[in-house]
Amino acid sequence: MSAEDNKTLARRSWEVTDNLDLLDEVYAADFVWHEPDQDIQGSEEARQFINMYKSAFPDLRVTVEDVLAEGDQAVTRWTIRGTHRGDLMGTAPTERKIEFKGISIHRIEGGKIVEEWNGYDTLGVMQQIGAVPSPEQN
Q1: For residue range 50-88, what is the model confidence (pLDDT) as tens digits?
Q2: What pLDDT is attached to residue 138?
Q3: What is the dihedral of CA 89, 90, 95, 97, to 10 degrees?
Q4: Are strands 97-109 and 27-34 parallel, antiparallel or unpaired?
Q5: Nearest to residue 83, comparing CAs of 68, 67, 94?
């Protein structure tokens, strides 16, 4: 695949948050997402992971800011925004708005993403919803 094809695929991967049916079109059957605190393997775990966040932030929106590609990899820089309206890992809804930024590296084989490394501030998200005190609260 060309660099432009890989960029298109990486950008399309973020559409999965709004349409889980795209998982099997964009990702290989045995893909792995390396999250900051865990690895997500395959479609079923990915669906559970996305549903957890979509339940906590029903208005969750992803904005892809940049996409770069070289060889078999593409990198996306993104921003996620939403409102905490459902339980998140034991934290009851707070109606607080969140915004966090991250970077993902997507490795592509045979026209599908086979591996992805995601970097973002999970502590910052938990601070934004009030689950963990932020430094200015101390």
Answers
A1: 999 999 999 999 999 999 999 999 999 999 999 999 999
A2: 60
A3: -30
A4: unpaired
A5: 94
- CATH architecture of the domain 3-137 equals Roll (3.10)
Would you call 65 helix, strand, or coil by DSSP?
Answer: strand
Nearest residue to 44 via CA among 15, 16, 23, 19: 23
Q: How far apart are CA 105 and CA 89, in angstroms?
A: 26
Q: Which of 78, 79, 98, 102 is nearest to 88 (CA)?
A: 98
**Angstrom distance (rounded) from CA 92 to CA 84:** 9
> pTM of the full predicted structure?
0.90
In this predicted structure, what is the pLDDT of residue 135?
A: 79
Residue type at position 133:
P
Distance CA 77, CA 64 (A): 6
What is the rounded average pLDDT for all residues in the chain? 94
